[in-house]
Each structure stands twice: as C-alpha cells, then as structure tokens.
Amino acid sequence: MNDVIKLLTSHRSIRKFESREMPDGLLTELIRAGQGAATSSHIQAYSVMRVTDMAKREQLVELTGGQGYVASCSEFLVFCADMKRPLEAAERTGEEDVISGMTEQLLVATVDVSLVAQNVAIAAESEGLGICYIGGIRNNPQAVSDLLDLPTHVYPVFGMCIGYPAHDPDVKPRLPVEAVLKENHYSDDSEQVAAFDQTMQTYYQGRKGGNKDTDWSHNLTPLFTQKLRPHMREFLIEKGFKMQ
C-alpha cells in the first residue's frame, strides 16, 4: 500500500478545528489540485464559493442545521454545479439552437463539481488538514443561493469545512470490497451487508467521543421512510434545470 492509498483510506470527517489560519496561497493550490480532476468533455461545469464574511458564515450555520464548525473552520467553501459559464460560452459562438436545462446537463455539472471537491479534499488531507462535507447546504438551497448571489444555472451542491483538526476521530468502516466490486453481473450482497451491520454496530458502540446502539441498515432507514429535501426538484427547475 503506497502513501496515496494510505491517505485515501484514512479519511475521517473533522468537525472540531484549531483556531488557526492556513498559510497564504495554500487554498489556491488546493483549488488548482481540484481543477486537475476529470471533467466531462472539458466543460469544467463548477464554481467554488469561498465564504470569508463571518456574518455570512453564521447565517450558513443556521441554514445548514446548526453545524457550528461551518463558522469555526479555517476555510468554508460552497461547491456549485455551474452550467452558466459553459452555456454562455456556447451562446457566444453564435449557435442559434443552444438548449439549456437538460437532465444530462444537471448530471454533468453535479458530477464535475463532485470530482473537483474530492480532489480538493485529498489535497487538503495531504497537507495535514481535515475536511468535512456539508450536505446541509441543500436544506435551504434558495436561501444559500440568495446569500451567495448564485445566478440561474448555478446551484449549491454541498459545502466543505477545511482546517487543522482539533480532534482525532476513528476511521469509519466501509462496506467490504466484495459487496461493491461485482464481476460481469449484479450479484447478491446480502451476506456481506449482514456482516457489515455487525461491524458497524461494534464501531458505534466503541468509537471515541460517544457510542450508540445501531448499525448501517438502521442508519439508512430515514433515507427511504422520509421525504428528504422534497424542495430540491422545484428549486432546480427554478434555477433553470428543467430536467427534460
């Protein structure tokens, strides 16, 4: 196992940060590393919003469900799927049949920005920093868009806290490779999932900073028994993603 693979498999979400700034120029290097990610047809359908205004950070704490580390981290970024820039570039060519808002455009932009963010996360961790993705950005996407002046064809996908870790959480177990790596056909993985439930129950009961009696399957239940963020479809349509 080389150092890159060791880094990738040692990821933890960091939610407590030291009160210190990152060195000048480091964030720029992290974003440049993010830009090195693959991008569909070289579209580069993403923008990254750096939030340095602490009043806006505090508003984002509330908009993301009271996640205080949004304000306490060294840097807080909002990763946006951005079809505005490529759409306008296509229009500037003089092409008369430019079509916007297609489902594929939404998917391309969402995948593009996710790949960029993961590169940023890996680059940050290679520098001794910790990160935490903030999906709570989508709790109130219109309010976030208004706060950051996001135009049509740009939507906030998630946030990311970056800073120097002030705690040392355990690495959370992942599903066994045998459950996710399938050969030639989709095979049954119920046996691996059952074993993983036991692994996760053991992890939750023994992890640092508290324990709970649950497992992986029970943690998934809200995803399929509650209507999570039902506002997203209408929000995306209003943002110009008609999903046709």
Could you explain how this protein is built, in words?
This is Oxygen-insensitive NADPH nitroreductase. Keywords: Flavoprotein, FMN, NADP, Oxidoreductase. The chain contains 11 helices and 4 strands; from the N terminus they run H-H-E-H-H-E-H-H-E-H-E-H-H-H-H. It is α+β, with helices and mostly antiparallel strands and 244 residues long. The chain has 2 domains: 167 residues, NADH Oxidase, CATH 3.40.109; 56 residues, no CATH class. The chain has a 4-stranded antiparallel β-sheet, sandwiched between helices. Helix 2 packs across helix 6. It is globular and about 60 Å long.
What does this entry show, briefly?
The protein has helices at 3-8, 26-35, 54-63, 69-72, 84-92, 103-126, 141-148, 177-180, 190-206, 216-225, 232-238; strands spanning 46-50, 75-82, 130-134, 154-163. It has 244 residues and is of the alpha+beta class. A four-stranded antiparallel beta sheet has the order 1-2-4-3, with helices on both faces.
